[in-house]
């Protein structure tokens, strides 16, 4: 019953009770509506609320009132760290410590399957729904993330540089801010020393001079070992430490035994990996099929580490693995998805040791097509650990002490089975974009020794093709059992990108049929026509940019690049969470024992997981790419003024991006340095064209450049153009359509040392044809 005084106005106790019953939701309007007050009563209500606030009975803020020191049910908070069990801890963003003392702590309850946009990390600002814990010790509130906001723009990551007179400067790690240092006063350094990686809050900006900042947190020193990757780890908030609970679970895990498993220890499975691989999660074996109805066919066995046996749903190991989404591979370190006890020990298929695995046995016909498959939970013992080059050398007639005894009984049947499988692959005709991948070799001090392009061997292709076959088998099996799963999907290019590519190829007089169904064969036909031609690198790059980006999804829309109707990642559960989900689904579908996918998992919940791990995959790729850029920028920092040959790898309104042939380093030639004339940006041709001379600089052009600036912390390089590296006549690439093209004035007083010859006049136009690379990073080559 709503208590009122003699004048029909609610008394103090009734108003306070209403405020307590509706924390954070009550204002003057809500109270008036609740007690049926008229406009004439508003003055009296405001007076009473002011008295209640003055005597501390309630707290009034803006238009809302609440209990004193109570948090509203929904608020914005900053996630400041983790507790001893690895749980996230947050504090209210708006909290007056002078008036209210130390802010209350909020422990974040993260669901095992966070919704898209709610996967939070340390340093994030998020919208929370909170409630009191009513516990005497520990955080006063618990909260759930409703939405994660973008990082506050006032927070910058950079390297602190001391000044002799005290204080210092912040050198930002972001390429876009490489030339925007911040001044940090001596009182605001928080004890940071020269070379420390720090996060800084901007406290003041100026119209002239440097902005000022205050050190918020010290993160480590870039002078230490593995410092360069540390920058990317913190910049992209990649979890570096496992929670204590996850570490305890990993240490308590025991080796697998024969309980619930088939004994495959006598099957001579072997692993083939890069020479520096730390974990070995897949093993292969093949033999001719002795079935008279399958003469010329093969039986291929692919065994994958049984991670689902150790990482159970809902455990701390599972939460940490999902948070990471995947392992991240830097030149100087690996940030694993799982603790070393799991990834490098119990789930690493090392030679001679019994290991649990999930295996698929596939029967290939003589045409290379898969006729049948079956899945098995096994105990295996790897017969050998080989590198790609080691396996290939043995097949090529150069066996060593390890491969010699394996050559006839194991390696030759493997290669024969691959030759058989390749027939079906060639008939399927997946997208053939075999672009070279560079690898950085480091010295003992962590600096760059050299950059190499590893030779693409049949050993690489063998493992890649067997893994693809196993992934297809997993997807087919789970579809047959009507189990939810996470697909690896790759959409076909959009019509806009296909049209833009077609118009671009027209400028090169390269035919491109746009009618009919879109298939990878269409792109392969174009590339095959130009193989060995001067155009080939250019066209390969443009075809790649026309492709969509591969991702994870609980809905299947096929894999365009591989030309497959269904595809799922099954072969790397040590380093990819998607594969772990597929393993759990297979265990559940086939009744293989413990570690199965819970019944609560649905396509809806898995769609949230798929969205999250797609983001973590892109985060990893960006962090890996930025670390390579920083390492090479450090490597080239003492070669300012040196000349290099490279190829134009990007064309924008800002200028030309050039990839150096020697190291693969990317740098910018600003448009202002190209000459004294205006340059039009032609999107369709991926080119900058001089309005007066018709000089054209196009994607794929081979050029000579001089390095004029290097920013190692940001990984940024700046070049100036020396000219075309080729003295041959220019290619007939056509003249761009001048209509409605933006113009950019080159820097006056500067001219190129060597000018390109004018392009032959020819009409042509095109729409923007940019795309995302779908080339995945992984030890088995392109992940798609």
UniProtKB/TrEMBL annotation:
Q: Which UniProt keywords apply?
A: Cytoplasm, Exonuclease, Hydrolase, Nuclease, RNA-binding
This protein's record includes keyword Nucleus? no
Family annotation (SUPFAM superfamilies): Nucleic acid-binding proteins
Q: Which residues form the S1 motif domain?
A: 641-722
Any one GO BP annotation for this protein: mRNA catabolic process
Record's subcellular location: Cytoplasm
Q: Which residues form a coiled coil?
A: none
Write out the GO MF terms: exoribonuclease II activity; RNA binding
Record's catalysed reaction(s):
Exonucleolytic cleavage in the 3'- to 5'-direction to yield nucleoside 5'-phosphates
> What family does this chain come from, according to its entry?
Belongs to the RNR ribonuclease family. RNase R subfamily.
Q: What is this protein called?
A: Ribonuclease R
Species name: Bradyrhizobium nitroreducens
